[in-house]
Amino acid sequence: MTNLHDTIQMLHAELTSVHLSRRERAQIERELARALAAQAATAAEVEGRATRASPA
Question: Cα dist. 12→1, 3, 44, 56 in Å?
Fold first, then answer.
């Protein structure tokens, strides 16, 4: 199973293909946007945990 970082890298690589239709490119861009949002949410969650766990 690939992790989120690998998925994002694969989607970026797919977007460099010159053989994509507009529909395929749009689909990949939507998938990439979802993956990046998930990555940002995960990072925010981890950061929130680190902030709460650190002593004041």
Answer: 18, 14, 22, 40
